[in-house]
Amino acid sequence: MCCTWAPPTAASLSTSSTAPVALAAVQLAAAAAAAAKAAPIELYYWHNKETPFAGRGEWVRLMLALCGFEFVDVSRDTGDTGAPFRFVHMYKGKVNEKFSAPAGAYPVMFPPIIKDGDVVLNQTTAILVYLARKAGKFMPSGAVAEAHVLQLTLAAFDTLSGAEHAHHPVAHNASYESQKAEADKAMAAWSAERLPSYLSQFERALAYNNGGDGGGGSGFLVGDAMSVADVALFQLMRGYRSSLPAHFAANADIARVKAHTAKIEALPDVAAFLASDKCTKMEGGPPVQANSFM
Questions:
Q1: Cβ-count burial 114-125 (b if 16+ within 10 Å, e if not)
Q2: Which of 136, 145, 199, 230 has the maximum number of C-beta atoms within 10 A of its C-beta?
Q3: Cβ density class 134-151: b for 16+ within 10 Å, e for less
Q4: How many whole angstroms separate alpha carbon 237 and alpha carbon 294?
Q5: Which of 255, 252, 248 is nearest to 213 (CA)?
Q6: Are strands 113-116 and 71-73 parallel, antiparallel or unpaired?
Q7: Which residues contact 72 (CB under 8 A, 6 or more apart)?
């Protein structure tokens, strides 16, 4: 009959004739577990030394910090700003001999990319969910609750994509400053015509989960605990209020969303991240770039 393995107790080791072997095995397993735990996750994202920006990498930085994982923000921490480019080339396939993909490497495209041992991922939502699952928190149990978390997280990234395109209406890969006149016009139109629809979904989801106008509830988007969706909405609002501070301040239609932002920001682990050197100080103004809601 099959059974689960449990580590031997100190008493059993002291009386067993195989105690030295068993103890060595336990110590070896513990050392391996400690080494695996200590290995930091690598984050690959674009970095500009002169004018830092948050980008989609900030969503991953925040989640890594909230999950309690050690991580290396490769370009920032090492100064190697070419690392994301090489990584993308390497994992897209064989570009040349220098950047050939490692055997068995899972295909990825653009940053943010994480490397966690042999696990390689891109697509920000996929990374957030992976980290939450690995940490054992920030994802609810149950198919419906999980689907709602994914629905709202993807909605946050739909909103982000809309802001990004409005801020870069002429050339997507060119800077905002190089097309500022056209971008400001496009952003004004998008903020008036499209942004309210996106934000309305979050406002209504918060009302649905928290007793409507009667109040009460957890204050989170889904269920009674913080989820990936809450992290996504909070980071989106950081981008909104940094990119369009006057518009954010004057927006009277998102009272619940603003209360949610304040709630998440005040959580000890979130506050610790915002104060840390891993955080991009989006709210502080130059030299940090803040446009496109990121």
A1: bbbeeebbbbbb
A2: 230
A3: eeebbbbeeeeebebbbe
A4: 9
A5: 255
A6: unpaired
A7: 40, 41, 42, 43, 78
Enter the tokens of residue 92.
Answer: 């897209």
Q: Please state, as a whole number, how many other Cβ atoms lie within 10 Å of the Cβ of residue 23.
A: 15
20-34, 154-168, 254-268, range with the lowest pLDDT: 20-34
Question: What percent of the chain clears pLDDT 70, i.e. is strictly above it?
Answer: 83
Give me 178's structure tokens.
């190089």
Beta-strand runs (E) in 117-198: 119-122
pLDDT tens-digit series, residues 99-155:
666 677 788 888 999 999 989 999 999 999 999 999 999 999 999 999 999 999 999
Residues 6+ apart with CB under 8 A from 216: 210
Q: Are 30 and 99 in contact (CB under 8 A)?
A: no
Q: Angle CA(117)–CA(122)–CA(124) in degrees, nearest 5? A: 120
Question: Mean pLDDT across the stretch 34-56?
Answer: 83
Using only C-alpha atoms, the chain has a radius of gyration, in whole angstroms, of 23
Query: Could you tell me the two tokens for 260?
Result: 């949610």
Q: 231 near 156, Cβ under 8 Å?
A: no
What does the DSSP 8-state code read for residue 115? E
pTM, 2 dp:
0.84
**Tens of pLDDT along 64-89?**
999 999 999 999 999 988 888 887 77
Q: Which long-range contacts (CB under 8 A, 24 or more apart) does 115-123 make?
A: 115/41, 115/42, 115/44, 115/87, 116/41, 116/42, 117/36, 117/39, 120/91
Tokens of 259: 């209360």
- Under 8 Å between Cβ of 60 and 128: yes
